[in-house]
Specification:
Blueprint: H1 4-8, E1 11-17, H2 20-32, E2 41-56, H3 59-82, H4 88-116, E3 123-139, H5 143-150
Helix pairs in contact: 3-4
Length: about 160
């Protein structure tokens, strides 16, 4: 997290863009042309939280997500125990048992967790922050050079 004192101390906006990618390209351009980019800021102004619904959460989907996460955990436990076995066959068996039982336990946990919600939040979503605009700020000492490189006149 950037403190507000860091933003306001000796920083000057040199450009404003509608997308983060455009602001990032500007910083890349400045860097490519030898500009001292250390301390340069890309500041999102007018932040909004956006949550995009991507799917409906069903019992089958809850079990599948639980099984996948449980399988990863079971694989990790199986690999850990396999380190302490002497021959290859028991190692493979431990890893497979860990994977299988992790998936089963994860599926059960996923079903229980979904049913506890009682119909609330029956969807899967992705959250993010979006800004209305993005400002590129540089040290005031270097602002004239940045404007020169960007072919702009200072504000």
């Amino acid at each position: 997290m950037v403190s507000s004192t860091l933003i306001t101390t000796n920083k000057e906006p040199i450009a404003t863009y509608r997308s983060y990618q455009e602001a990032q390209k500007t910083v890349d351009f400045l860097s490519d042309h030898g500009f001292p980019v250390k301390g340069t800021l890309i500041v999102g102004v007018g932040l909004r939280s956006i949550e995009q619904v991507v799917a409906r959460m069903t019992y089958l989907r809850a079990a599948a997500w639980g099984a996948l996460s449980g399988a990863w955990f079971g694989l990790l436990i199986g690999l850990f125990f396999a380190i302490f076995t002497a021959t290859a066959m028991p190692q493979i068996a431990l890893v497979l048992y860990g994977l299988l039982w992790g998936a089963v336990a994860g599926a059960i946990f996923g079903l229980i967790a979904h049913s506890v919600h009682g119909g609330r939040r029956d969807f899967v979503s992705e959250s993010g922050l979006v800004a209305d605009k993005y400002e590129v700020l540089v040290d005031s000492d270097h602002a004239a050079k940045a404007h020169e490189l960007l072919g702009k006149t200072p504000h």
